[in-house]
């Protein structure tokens, strides 16, 4: 389906514009708006229907990292990369570009400002050099979530008359056989959209494709928090054009609950009680459940590691069940596919989700163990050791903060399996500071760009609002560079 201003014919069309943008999340919209404002004709292909368009941007917090000091921001980014350094031109472009995000969003005709609840006290990694640059999480109207950023971006497209084709997944790139230059896109319907100046891939990550997740992240059956349309389309197309890849094993995951049979999951935040234990498939506890962490990494045993990075069972008792909903509804945190798109409201005492079978219930720990398949006395031993730590106020095994040590004592007892829940992936086609995709020899693939989670900047750790900021920075970079390329020779 096409919307404003052109209709999409059912027959196999051949069209030609200056810039084709594939995907209309934050990166795609930023690329399209920037290319249009630079004088290019632009067409956007969006895989989903209009009601579900926008990928993870639509259901995200919609907030971005704000700062006023590119030099300190560059230091912070280098610190977060650890032993996975980025090319310095990319660091420079990111550090200077993120300073401009608030002004650019505001230029779209909306108010922006800091949110006072999330990342209000500063960086998630305050111990890292450069973290003092963190100036807050900025949002449209200063409010997290509820689709505000996507609404502003989509409106900017339509105000400019940029052609958007919904329900139009791309199936491949058109390339020049001799040079490898990318000159257009083929849609799943068979239409050919020729691009005189460039194609921007802004298709999101690969968290919605179980096989890619298994291959690159080592997870089986991991549910997703956002859009299941993020199935690695841009990754595959870029690879077919010869792209190199970077940081394919990096991700953002959280503790989450999934309705059986669904690919979408819910955040499990336990805002009202810390009486929670994480155990592995053998029933053994393996980590500090509330270790201070950022968006995907935590400092454990002296190293920043993915957290959580493996499937686990989450155990709690009747006291924690009655304390409040495990997963926040829209009035608390208006993010996530199930909350915003499906309108689900978690029951206040978790009883509806238990009755539906999302969470196992056992009158005793032995009964719970039999329901979950834990061997022998492992669960009893894990809970007993944890409760002893709570009584002593000292978690000698994993160093959990005494303030979070709430015992698991009151029957019945509960458990659910977390996959974990995938927020987004980070790896994809390698790109440069202009968002141009690079081949395996490090050379530019002419006419091909990538921005957003199809190819995020972050090689390892990342802070709050980094992904939206990154998507806008390199979406704008792609749109600007593509619009400024010399037109292809029509004879090619």
TrEMBL record:
Q: This protein's superkingdom?
A: Bacteria
Q: Which Pfam families match?
A: FAD_binding_2 (PF00890)
Q: Keywords assigned by UniProt?
A: FAD, Flavoprotein, Oxidoreductase
Question: Which InterPro entries did the record assign?
Answer: FAD-dep_OxRdtase_2_FAD-bd, FAD-oxidoreductase_2, FAD/NAD-bd_sf, Succ_DH/fumarate_Rdtase_cat_sf
Q: Which cofactors does this protein require?
A: FAD
Under PROSITE patterns, the record lists: PROKAR_LIPOPROTEIN (PS51257)
| A GO term for molecular function | steroid dehydrogenase activity, acting on the CH-CH group of donors
Boundaries of every FAD-dependent oxidoreductase 2 FAD-binding domain copy = 18-464
Task: Give yes or no: UniProt keyword Oxidoreductase.
Answer: yes
Query: Which biological process, per GO, is one annotated for this protein?
Result: steroid metabolic process
Name of protein: Fumarate reductase/succinate dehydrogenase
Q: Which organism's genome codes for this protein? A: Rhodococcus coprophilus
Protein encoded by which gene: ifcA_4
């Amino acid at each position: 389906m096409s919307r404003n201003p052109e209709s999409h014919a059912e027959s196999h069309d051949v069209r030609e514009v200056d810039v084709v943008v594939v995907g209309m999340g934050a990166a795609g919209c930023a690329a399209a708006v920037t290319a249009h404002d630079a004088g290019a004709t632009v067409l956007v292909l969006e895989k989903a229907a209009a009601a579900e368009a926008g990928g993870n941007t639509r259901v995200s917090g919609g907030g971005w990292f704000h700062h006023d000091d590119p030099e300190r921001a560059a230091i912070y980014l280098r610190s977060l990369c650890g032993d996975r350094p980025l090319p310095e031109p990319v660091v420079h472009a990111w550090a200077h570009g993120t300073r401009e995000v608030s002004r650019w969003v505001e230029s779209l005709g909306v108010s922006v400002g800091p949110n006072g609840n999330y990342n209000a006290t500063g960086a998630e990694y305050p111990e890292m050099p450069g973290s003092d640059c963190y100036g807050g999480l900025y949002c449209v109207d200063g409010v997290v979530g509820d689709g505000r950023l996507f609404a502003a971006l989509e409106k900017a497209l339509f105000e400019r008359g940029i052609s958007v084709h919904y329900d139009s997944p791309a199936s491949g790139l058109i390339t020049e056989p001799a040079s490898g230059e990318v000159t257009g896109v083929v849609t799943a319907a068979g239409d050919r959209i020729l691009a005189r100046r460039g194609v921007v891939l802004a298709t999101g990550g690969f968290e919605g494709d179980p096989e890619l997740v298994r291959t690159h992240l080592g997870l089986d059956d991991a549910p997703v928090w956002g859009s299941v349309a993020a199935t690695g389309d841009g990754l595959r197309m870029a690879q077919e054009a010869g792209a190199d890849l970077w940081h394919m094993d990096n991700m953002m995951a959280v503790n989450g609950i999934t309705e059986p049979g669904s690919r979408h999951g819910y955040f499990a935040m336990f805002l009202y009680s810390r009486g929670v234990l994480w155990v592995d498939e053998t029933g053994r506890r393996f980590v500090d459940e509330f270790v201070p962490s950022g968006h995907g990494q935590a400092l454990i045993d002296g190293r920043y590691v993915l957290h959580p990075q493996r499937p686990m069972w989450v155990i709690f008792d009747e006291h924690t069940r009655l304390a409040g909903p495990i997963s926040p509804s829209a009035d608390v945190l208006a993010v996530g596919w199930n909350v915003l798109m499906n309108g689900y409201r978690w029951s206040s005492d978790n009883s509806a989700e238990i009755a539906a079978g999302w969470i196992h219930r056992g009158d005793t720990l032995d009964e719970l163990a039999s329901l979950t398949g834990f061997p022998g006395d492992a669960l009893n031993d894990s809970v007993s050791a944890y409760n002893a730590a709570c009584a002593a106020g000292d978690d000698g095994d994993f160093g959990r903060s005494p303030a979070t040590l709430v015992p698991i004592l009151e029957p019945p007892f509960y458990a659910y399996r977390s996959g974990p829940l995938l927020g987004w992936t980070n790896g994809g086609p390698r790109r440069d500071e202009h968002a141009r995709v690079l081949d395996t020899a490090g050379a530019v693939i002419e006419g091909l760009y990538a921005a957003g989670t199809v190819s995020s900047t972050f090689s390892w750790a990342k802070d709050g609002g980094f992904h939206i900021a990154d998507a806008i920075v390199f979406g704008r970079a792609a749109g600007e560079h593509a619009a400024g390329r010399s037109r292809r020779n029509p004879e090619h």
